[in-house]
Each structure stands twice: as C-alpha cells, then as structure tokens.
Amino acid sequence: MISRYRAAGGVVVHDHEVLVLLRPSRDEVRLPKGHIDPGETAEQAAIREVAEESGYEQLEVLADLGEQTVRFPSRWSDTVERVERYFLMRALSGRTGYGEWEFEPCWLSWDEAEHRLSYEPEREWVRRARAAFSPAAP
C-alpha cells in the first residue's frame, strides 16, 4: 500500500547561513517542511511550516526551487510517497515565535548544512537553493 501526500518547506538564509532544525529525539538535522493543508498553496504552506517549526515568522520568498518526489518506508503503510516543493527564503528578522518543542533552530554555513542534513533529498534542496541564491540581492 502506498500513502501519498504533498508537502512544502523552505531553505531559509540569513547572512550567508542556512537555517536547519536539530531534532535531538531522533538524532536528526532537518529542513523545515510539512503537509500542505486543503486550500493552501505550496508557498503558503512553506511559509507557515517554517514559522511553526522554527519560530522565524518574518520571511521573504526569493525563489521557487521546484519539486521532487521522495519515497520511504513507513510504520503505517508499505511506502510513503511525498511530493515536496521547496522555496528559497530569507529571514527578515530574528525569531518572533517559539517554534515547535521538538526542534532546535540552528544556523549553519552552506557547506555544513549540506553535510549535516540527515537525508539526501534535503541536501539536494540546499544545493538547489545555493545555486539560486544571489548574495547581492537586497
């Protein structure tokens, strides 16, 4: 049985660093993302998920990084198929919210973020974001 859903997230940058979420309970380093709710666009979901998970609420979308499909085993079904869409974002201020208790926001260099992320599909999002990022942008 295949369980399918759509998700959206962000590669958030600030001062040439990338926002990652440490998840000590699972020994993971992740990018913020989550389900796209009914009636939401992928961009709206990405902004909401980044804010909810990290506490960074003042965000500017710089680019749509595209879509990729990720498949993985699950406890609840044989396979999960998640269609992910990510956006390159810039944090416009410090944390204004609390974020989710299970995540610890952390800023890493591009190289360190790519190296430390727990899953290859998320490393690919960092590579796409880095290629699209223009440090000269206002």
Q: Span between N and C termini?
A: 47 Å
Oligomerization state: single chain
Series of secondary-structure elements, N-terminal to C-terminal: EEEEHEEEHH
Main β sheet profile = 7 strands, mixed
Number of strands: 7
Beta-strand fraction estimate: 35-45%
Briefly, what CATH class?
Alpha Beta
The DSSP helix count reads 3
CATH architecture: Alpha-Beta Complex
SS-derived structural category: alpha+beta
Q: What is the number of independent domains?
A: 1
Q: What's the pLDDT, averaged over the residues?
A: 92
Share of helical residues: 10-25%
Shape: globular
What can you tell me about this protein's structure?
The protein is α+β, with helices and mostly antiparallel strands and 138 residues long. The protein has one domain (2-108): Nucleoside Triphosphate Pyrophosphohydrolase (Alpha-Beta Complex). Helices cover 24% and strands 43% of the residues. It contains three helices and seven strands; from the N terminus they run ββββαβββαα. The chain has helices spanning 42-54, 110-116, 120-132; strands at 2-14, 17-23, 28-30, 33-35, 59-72, 79-91, 104-109. Strands 1, 2, 3, 4, 5, 6 and 7 form a seven-stranded mixed β-sheet that branches. Helix 2 runs antiparallel to helix 3.
In short:
By secondary structure, this protein is α+β, with helices and mostly antiparallel strands.
